[in-house]
Amino acid sequence: MEPITINITILKPIQKVWDYFYNPKHIVKWNFTTPNWHCPKAVIDFREGGSFDYRLEYKDKSFGYDFSGQIVEIRDLEYVKSILRDGRTIEVYFNKIDETTTEVVEVFEPEEQYSTEMQRVGYYAILDRFHKYVENN
């Protein structure tokens, strides 16, 4: 399957965008698709070879899943490549547009269980929630 690419432009400096994307105290505030979901746990050892483990679930606890894996490569304020537990890769690019504007681009291998479009919509919903969280905090 072809990788899925999504991107969003955030009207904040790259350092803030980077920090909010990888800091667990912020991850739990934005890492879910819709208001009936939440991210009750975010643990990350942010270094090459480190791991991350995020829990996403319905607020009523009727369904949830772990989003976890290992960080393979970090280029400070530019790029992070991770391998999810199921072997798929996800790459996140941080592009400094100017002093107050940052573009975030995610490239990920889709999973087999859900349609590519459903995955694109879900990842984009999370990225859009991140964008709003960074701009408003």
UniProtKB/TrEMBL annotation:
Pfam families: AHSA1
Record domain Activator of Hsp90 ATPase homologue 1/2-like C-terminal: where: 13-135
Recorded superkingdom: Bacteria
Signal sequence annotation: none
Coiled coil spans: none
Xref: InterPro entries: ASHA1/2-like_C, START-like_dom_sf
Family statement: Belongs to the AHA1 family.
Protein name, as recorded: Activator of Hsp90 ATPase homologue 1/2-like C-terminal domain-containing protein
Organism this protein belongs to: Chryseobacterium salivictor
